[in-house]
Amino acid sequence: MAQSDEGLQHRAVRVVKQRLENLQRAGVTHLAKPRRRAVEAKPRGAETACSAPIVESTRQDELITPALMPPGERPTALEIIRREVAACTRCAELASSRTQTVFGVGNPNARICFFGEAPGADEDRQGEPFVGRAGQLLTKMIQACGLKREDVYILNVLKCRPPGNRNPLPDEVTNCRGYFERQLAIVRPEVICCLGAVAAKSLLCTEQSIGKLRGSFHDHRGTAVICTYHPAYLLRNPAAKVDAWEDLKMMMRRLGVEL
Q1: Among 11-25, 37-51, 118-132, 201-215, where is mean pLDDT lowest?
Q2: What's the pLDDT at 21?
Q3: What is the value of pTM for the model shown?
Q4: CA of 31: how far to CAs of 66, 178, 199, 203, in Å?
Q5: N or C end of the chain: which has fewer CB within 10 A?
Q6: Domain of 247?
Q7: Across-strand partners of 154?
Q8: Tell me, what CATH number does 169's domain have?
Protein backbone atom coordinates (compact mmCIF):
# COMPACT_ATOMS: atom_id res chain seq x y z
CA MET A 1 0.00 0.00 0.00
CA ALA A 2 2.88 2.33 0.90
CA GLN A 3 4.44 1.65 -2.49
CA SER A 4 1.16 2.55 -4.22
CA ASP A 5 0.94 5.83 -2.30
CA GLU A 6 4.52 6.66 -3.28
CA GLY A 7 3.70 6.01 -6.92
CA LEU A 8 0.71 8.34 -6.73
CA GLN A 9 2.87 11.04 -5.19
CA HIS A 10 5.44 10.77 -7.99
CA ARG A 11 2.66 10.97 -10.56
CA ALA A 12 1.18 14.04 -8.87
CA VAL A 13 4.58 15.73 -8.89
CA ARG A 14 4.97 15.05 -12.62
CA VAL A 15 1.51 16.45 -13.38
CA VAL A 16 2.14 19.61 -11.37
CA LYS A 17 5.58 20.08 -12.92
CA GLN A 18 4.17 19.73 -16.44
CA ARG A 19 1.40 22.22 -15.67
CA LEU A 20 3.85 24.76 -14.29
CA GLU A 21 6.07 24.40 -17.36
CA ASN A 22 3.04 25.08 -19.60
CA LEU A 23 2.20 28.17 -17.57
CA GLN A 24 5.77 29.38 -17.81
CA ARG A 25 5.69 29.05 -21.60
CA ALA A 26 2.45 31.05 -21.55
CA GLY A 27 4.23 33.92 -19.80
CA VAL A 28 2.70 33.38 -16.35
CA THR A 29 5.03 34.55 -13.60
CA HIS A 30 2.88 33.92 -10.53
CA LEU A 31 -0.39 32.44 -9.33
CA ALA A 32 -2.80 34.50 -7.29
CA LYS A 33 -3.82 33.15 -3.90
CA PRO A 34 -7.50 32.07 -3.91
CA ARG A 35 -9.81 34.08 -1.71
CA ARG A 36 -11.60 32.27 1.07
CA ARG A 37 -15.32 31.91 0.77
CA ALA A 38 -17.53 33.39 3.42
CA VAL A 39 -18.39 31.02 6.25
CA GLU A 40 -22.08 31.61 5.75
CA ALA A 41 -22.87 30.38 2.24
CA LYS A 42 -25.16 32.47 0.08
CA PRO A 43 -28.24 30.89 -1.49
CA ARG A 44 -27.68 29.56 -5.00
CA GLY A 45 -28.18 32.38 -7.49
CA ALA A 46 -27.60 35.12 -4.90
CA GLU A 47 -24.09 35.74 -6.24
CA THR A 48 -24.04 37.19 -9.73
CA ALA A 49 -21.30 36.88 -12.30
CA CYS A 50 -20.18 40.38 -11.35
CA SER A 51 -20.39 40.12 -7.56
CA ALA A 52 -18.52 36.83 -7.44
CA PRO A 53 -14.72 37.17 -7.16
CA ILE A 54 -12.86 36.33 -10.35
CA VAL A 55 -10.53 34.10 -8.35
CA GLU A 56 -12.57 32.01 -5.96
CA SER A 57 -11.89 28.36 -6.69
CA THR A 58 -8.91 26.06 -6.72
CA ARG A 59 -9.10 25.41 -10.47
CA GLN A 60 -5.68 26.38 -11.77
CA ASP A 61 -6.86 28.18 -14.86
CA GLU A 62 -8.90 30.56 -12.67
CA LEU A 63 -5.89 31.37 -10.51
CA ILE A 64 -3.75 32.64 -13.38
CA THR A 65 -2.84 36.32 -13.47
CA PRO A 66 -0.90 36.84 -16.72
CA ALA A 67 1.90 39.34 -16.37
CA LEU A 68 2.68 41.84 -19.08
CA MET A 69 4.58 39.74 -21.58
CA PRO A 70 6.66 40.52 -24.67
CA PRO A 71 4.54 40.87 -27.83
CA GLY A 72 6.18 37.87 -29.46
CA GLU A 73 5.00 35.54 -26.68
CA ARG A 74 1.34 36.54 -26.76
CA PRO A 75 0.22 34.27 -29.64
CA THR A 76 1.53 31.20 -27.81
CA ALA A 77 -0.14 32.27 -24.56
CA LEU A 78 -3.47 32.78 -26.33
CA GLU A 79 -3.16 29.43 -28.09
CA ILE A 80 -2.77 27.65 -24.76
CA ILE A 81 -5.99 29.24 -23.50
CA ARG A 82 -7.74 28.47 -26.79
CA ARG A 83 -7.03 24.78 -26.30
CA GLU A 84 -8.41 24.96 -22.77
CA VAL A 85 -11.57 26.61 -24.08
CA ALA A 86 -12.00 23.97 -26.79
CA ALA A 87 -12.08 21.25 -24.11
CA CYS A 88 -14.24 23.19 -21.64
CA THR A 89 -17.43 21.52 -20.34
CA ARG A 90 -18.22 23.83 -17.42
CA CYS A 91 -21.62 24.78 -18.86
CA ALA A 92 -23.26 21.42 -19.55
CA GLU A 93 -26.03 22.84 -21.75
CA LEU A 94 -23.69 24.90 -23.91
CA ALA A 95 -21.06 22.18 -24.21
CA SER A 96 -23.65 19.65 -25.36
CA SER A 97 -25.30 21.93 -27.93
CA ARG A 98 -22.33 23.72 -29.50
CA THR A 99 -20.75 22.80 -32.82
CA GLN A 100 -17.43 24.22 -31.62
CA THR A 101 -16.12 26.87 -29.30
CA VAL A 102 -15.47 30.42 -30.54
CA PHE A 103 -12.35 31.77 -28.88
CA GLY A 104 -11.18 35.03 -30.41
CA VAL A 105 -9.45 36.34 -33.49
CA GLY A 106 -7.18 39.14 -34.60
CA ASN A 107 -3.97 40.87 -33.63
CA PRO A 108 -2.62 39.64 -30.26
CA ASN A 109 -0.86 43.01 -29.93
CA ALA A 110 -3.89 45.10 -30.89
CA ARG A 111 -4.50 48.57 -29.52
CA ILE A 112 -8.26 47.92 -29.61
CA CYS A 113 -10.30 44.93 -28.48
CA PHE A 114 -13.93 44.64 -29.59
CA PHE A 115 -15.82 42.73 -26.92
CA GLY A 116 -19.16 41.16 -27.84
CA GLU A 117 -21.80 39.01 -26.21
CA ALA A 118 -21.79 35.42 -27.49
CA PRO A 119 -21.48 33.45 -30.73
CA GLY A 120 -24.47 33.11 -33.01
CA ALA A 121 -25.30 30.38 -35.51
CA ASP A 122 -22.73 31.53 -38.10
CA GLU A 123 -20.02 31.88 -35.48
CA ASP A 124 -20.82 28.47 -34.00
CA ARG A 125 -20.51 26.95 -37.47
CA GLN A 126 -17.28 28.72 -38.49
CA GLY A 127 -15.56 29.00 -35.10
CA GLU A 128 -14.83 32.71 -35.46
CA PRO A 129 -16.54 35.66 -33.72
CA PHE A 130 -18.64 38.16 -35.68
CA VAL A 131 -18.87 36.51 -39.09
CA GLY A 132 -22.63 36.79 -39.67
CA ARG A 133 -24.62 39.88 -40.67
CA ALA A 134 -23.68 41.65 -37.44
CA GLY A 135 -20.07 40.71 -38.07
CA GLN A 136 -20.18 42.20 -41.54
CA LEU A 137 -21.40 45.46 -40.04
CA LEU A 138 -18.67 45.33 -37.39
CA THR A 139 -16.11 44.93 -40.17
CA LYS A 140 -17.47 48.09 -41.82
CA MET A 141 -17.30 49.92 -38.48
CA ILE A 142 -13.67 48.87 -38.07
CA GLN A 143 -12.88 49.97 -41.62
CA ALA A 144 -14.56 53.33 -40.97
CA CYS A 145 -12.00 53.80 -38.21
CA GLY A 146 -9.23 53.37 -40.79
CA LEU A 147 -8.42 49.84 -39.62
CA LYS A 148 -8.77 46.24 -40.77
CA ARG A 149 -10.13 43.28 -38.83
CA GLU A 150 -6.62 41.88 -38.55
CA ASP A 151 -5.50 45.10 -36.83
CA VAL A 152 -7.84 44.60 -33.86
CA TYR A 153 -8.69 41.73 -31.52
CA ILE A 154 -12.27 40.44 -31.35
CA LEU A 155 -13.73 38.24 -28.63
CA ASN A 156 -16.99 37.52 -26.80
CA VAL A 157 -18.13 37.09 -23.22
CA LEU A 158 -19.16 33.48 -23.92
CA LYS A 159 -17.19 31.02 -26.00
CA CYS A 160 -20.20 28.83 -26.85
CA ARG A 161 -23.46 29.69 -28.58
CA PRO A 162 -26.43 29.86 -26.19
CA PRO A 163 -29.39 27.81 -27.51
CA GLY A 164 -31.75 29.97 -29.53
CA ASN A 165 -29.31 32.89 -29.21
CA ARG A 166 -30.70 33.66 -25.75
CA ASN A 167 -28.77 36.01 -23.44
CA PRO A 168 -25.97 34.46 -21.39
CA LEU A 169 -26.97 33.26 -17.92
CA PRO A 170 -25.08 34.62 -14.88
CA ASP A 171 -23.49 31.23 -14.17
CA GLU A 172 -22.32 31.01 -17.78
CA VAL A 173 -20.67 34.43 -17.59
CA THR A 174 -18.97 33.40 -14.36
CA ASN A 175 -17.69 30.20 -15.97
CA CYS A 176 -16.25 32.11 -18.95
CA ARG A 177 -14.92 35.09 -17.01
CA GLY A 178 -11.54 33.51 -16.37
CA TYR A 179 -11.08 32.95 -20.09
CA PHE A 180 -11.94 36.43 -21.38
CA GLU A 181 -10.12 38.14 -18.50
CA ARG A 182 -6.96 36.21 -19.38
CA GLN A 183 -7.34 37.06 -23.08
CA LEU A 184 -7.62 40.76 -22.30
CA ALA A 185 -4.72 40.59 -19.83
CA ILE A 186 -2.48 39.03 -22.49
CA VAL A 187 -3.41 41.37 -25.35
CA ARG A 188 -3.38 44.44 -23.07
CA PRO A 189 -5.17 46.78 -25.50
CA GLU A 190 -5.28 50.51 -24.97
CA VAL A 191 -9.06 50.52 -25.40
CA ILE A 192 -11.77 47.87 -25.00
CA CYS A 193 -14.92 48.59 -27.00
CA CYS A 194 -17.92 46.81 -25.46
CA LEU A 195 -20.54 45.99 -28.08
CA GLY A 196 -23.95 45.98 -26.45
CA ALA A 197 -25.38 45.81 -22.95
CA VAL A 198 -24.43 42.21 -22.17
CA ALA A 199 -20.75 42.79 -22.92
CA ALA A 200 -20.67 46.10 -21.04
CA LYS A 201 -22.45 44.78 -17.96
CA SER A 202 -20.35 41.61 -17.88
CA LEU A 203 -17.03 43.45 -18.15
CA LEU A 204 -17.79 46.48 -15.98
CA CYS A 205 -19.98 44.66 -13.45
CA THR A 206 -22.77 47.19 -13.67
CA GLU A 207 -26.51 47.19 -14.21
CA GLN A 208 -26.54 50.52 -16.05
CA SER A 209 -28.10 50.58 -19.50
CA ILE A 210 -25.99 50.96 -22.60
CA GLY A 211 -27.59 54.37 -23.12
CA LYS A 212 -26.18 55.58 -19.79
CA LEU A 213 -22.80 53.93 -20.30
CA ARG A 214 -22.27 55.56 -23.69
CA GLY A 215 -20.50 58.89 -24.09
CA SER A 216 -17.75 58.44 -21.52
CA PHE A 217 -14.80 56.21 -20.78
CA HIS A 218 -14.81 53.62 -18.04
CA ASP A 219 -11.98 51.64 -16.46
CA HIS A 220 -11.31 47.93 -16.37
CA ARG A 221 -8.10 46.95 -14.60
CA GLY A 222 -6.33 50.04 -15.90
CA THR A 223 -7.64 49.82 -19.47
CA ALA A 224 -9.99 52.40 -20.95
CA VAL A 225 -13.42 51.02 -21.86
CA ILE A 226 -15.95 52.56 -24.21
CA CYS A 227 -19.47 51.18 -24.70
CA THR A 228 -21.60 51.33 -27.82
CA TYR A 229 -24.49 49.53 -29.44
CA HIS A 230 -24.12 45.96 -30.65
CA PRO A 231 -24.02 45.68 -34.47
CA ALA A 232 -27.08 43.39 -34.33
CA TYR A 233 -29.00 46.20 -32.60
CA LEU A 234 -27.81 48.65 -35.26
CA LEU A 235 -29.18 46.35 -37.97
CA ARG A 236 -32.59 46.50 -36.28
CA ASN A 237 -32.34 50.21 -35.48
CA PRO A 238 -30.37 51.97 -38.24
CA ALA A 239 -31.00 55.39 -36.70
CA ALA A 240 -28.70 54.46 -33.81
CA LYS A 241 -25.73 54.22 -36.20
CA VAL A 242 -25.22 57.97 -35.78
CA ASP A 243 -24.65 57.51 -32.05
CA ALA A 244 -22.41 54.49 -32.62
CA TRP A 245 -20.29 56.50 -35.01
CA GLU A 246 -19.83 59.20 -32.35
CA ASP A 247 -18.67 56.49 -29.94
CA LEU A 248 -16.12 55.20 -32.44
CA LYS A 249 -14.82 58.71 -33.13
CA MET A 250 -14.40 59.28 -29.39
CA MET A 251 -12.52 55.98 -29.13
CA MET A 252 -10.17 56.87 -31.98
CA ARG A 253 -9.52 60.34 -30.53
CA ARG A 254 -8.37 58.54 -27.40
CA LEU A 255 -5.80 56.81 -29.60
CA GLY A 256 -4.73 60.06 -31.24
CA VAL A 257 -6.69 59.63 -34.48
CA GLU A 258 -9.23 62.14 -35.78
CA LEU A 259 -11.95 60.77 -38.07
Answers
A1: 37-51
A2: 57
A3: 0.77
A4: 9, 13, 27, 22
A5: N
A6: 70-254
A7: 105, 114
A8: 3.40.470.10
